[in-house]
Amino acid sequence: MKTYVVEHLDPECGPWSTLEYITIAKESTDAGATFCLSSAPLDLDIPDSVKAVRGFNIDHRSVEDVYHDRKDRVCLLDPAAKEELKPADAEDFDVFVFGGILGDDPPRDRTSELRKKGFTGRRLGPIQMTTDTAVRVTRMVIQGKALTEIPYLDYPEIRIDDHESTEMPFRYVKDADQRPVMPEGMIDLIKKDSEKGFGELL
User: Fold this and answer.
1) Residue 156 vs residues 21, 100, 103, 178: alpha-carbon distances, Å
2) Most exposed among 34, 69, 117, 139, judged by the fewest C-beta atoms under 10 Å?
3) CA-to-CA dists, residue 65 to 38, 59, 199, angstroms
4) What is the model's pLDDT at position 163?
C-alpha cells in the first residue's frame, strides 16, 4: 500500500487546505492508499469536516521520526530534484512526501530541510501545482501513467462574475470537459474570497 504524506507545519488549517485535505483523503482511500498529515502542531485545530473524512490520518511526529528506519523507501517530491517521477518508481518507494514552504515567518523551506537529510527526491515538472494536484499527479504516475501522458491545464482562468475573472497561478490536471480538477467547493471559495488574495486562503 502506498502512503501520501503532506507536511503541515502551520498552526492553522485554513479553508483552502481544508478542501484540499478532504479531497486527498477521499481520492487516496478510493485508490487503496493512505493519506497522512505529518509534523502537525499539537494544538492544530483540524475542522470537523476533515476529521470526518474516511482515510484522513494525522501524525504529530516528523517524517524523519516516522520513517527513520526505512528512509530509502521514502520519496520526497522536490522541485529541485534532478530526476522526474516515473512509473518505475512504484517499485522503489512506498511513501511519497510533500513538503513545501509552510508555517513560519520568514517562510520555512521544509522540502529543502528534508532534502538535506538524505531523502530521495523526484520532481513533477517545472510548474507549481496545488497540493492536491501534486498528490493526484504522483498517484497517477505511480499507477502507471508517465508525467507526459497526463492532461494538464496551466494557469486556468476562473470566472468570478460576468465582469471579473482571476487566473490561478498553478498547474492542474484537466478533466474530460477540459476543466481543471479541483476540490469540491474550491470554485465557490475562490469566488467568495477573490478580493482578499490567495495568501488569506491558504
Assistant:
1) 21, 22, 27, 10
2) 69
3) 10, 10, 30
4) 83
